[in-house]
Specification:
single chain, alpha+beta, 30% helix, Creatine Amidinohydrolase, 3-stranded antiparallel β-sheet, 4-stranded antiparallel β-sheet
Length: 251
């Protein structure tokens, strides 16, 4: 979507704060011994307390309130009885809508880290987001964002999962344009004032290839390598990008 009115802006910021709070509370609850289902319950409670909805549930039938993906699961993992262990790399991804506006964000947390390499992978996903954010202006295109992500990830010795990308968001969970995590000139879109997108590096410590699991939702790395994911919902403005999915909605 594109922000056209003050009501649009207020609606997006409200949805963004719901998502940010859910992610923060899930991260606070995360520890060795907790189940992914218990983390999902945290997300559900936060979302419902704001009168919001878990968008994947009602829009595409996802069987939980949050996507929780562990280790080689890159995205769209289904929460359940899995118990978290030390050094697990956990991706928490929340999409929520309230008042007709949708926001989407994800974080990667290493539970009681033992491996420096796993921490470095998680940090790289966030660092790649920050590099890409510098390209999120009306002077650039979606492929400039992708190129910035890919440069940072490759410089760190990792690879983007090319089959997964960012996207437009706002009225629905997935809207145009596609925002790849690499330079893809075909179909690249000029970033315009008010456009709302997600920027979300999804990366791997292995080949970068991935496949859809038999459950029909979870995307896993083909070689069993650990994956990381960092995502924010961002509004493109003439004065620079504005991150929506923070509780204080800072620029």
């Amino acid at each position: 979507m594109s922000i056209e009115t003050e009501a649009d802006l207020a609606g997006m910021l409200r949805a963004g704060r719901v998502v940010a709070e859910a992610l923060r509370r899930m991260e606070e609850r995360m520890c060795v011994g907790v189940t992914t289902g218990e983390l999902d319950e945290v997300a559900r409670a936060v979302i419902e307390s704001h009168g919001a909805r878990a968008t994947p549930k009602h829009e595409v039938g996802f069987p939980a309130s949050a996507c929780i993906s562990v280790n080689d699961e890159a995205v769209h993992g289904i929460p359940g009885t899995r118990v978290l262990r030390a050094d697990d790399v956990v991706k928490i991804d929340v999409t929520a809508d309230v008042g007709g506006y949708v926001a989407d964000a994800a974080r990667t947390i290493v539970v009681e880290p033992l491996s420096q390499e796993r921490l470095r992978l998680a940090w790289c996903a966030k660092s790649a987001f920050r590099k890409a954010l510098g390209m999120a202006t009306t002077a650039h295109r979606t492929d400039d964002i992708g190129a910035a992500v890919d440069r940072e990830v490759r410089a760190s010795g990792f690879k983007v999962i090319r089959s997964l990308c960012g996207h437009g968001v706002g009225r629905k969970m997935h809207e145009p344009p596609s925002v790849p995590n690499y330079r893809e000139r075909v179909g690249a879109t000029r970033l315009t004032h008010g456009l709302v997108i997600t920027i979300e590096p999804i990366i791997s410590g292995g080949s970068g290839d991935a496949y859809l699991d038999e459950d029909g939702w979870t995307v896993r790395t083909s070689d069993g390598a650990i994956a990381a994911h960092y995502e924010e919902t961002v509004i493109i403005t003439r004065t620079g990008p504005r991150i929506v999915t923070q509780e204080r909605n800072h620029r």
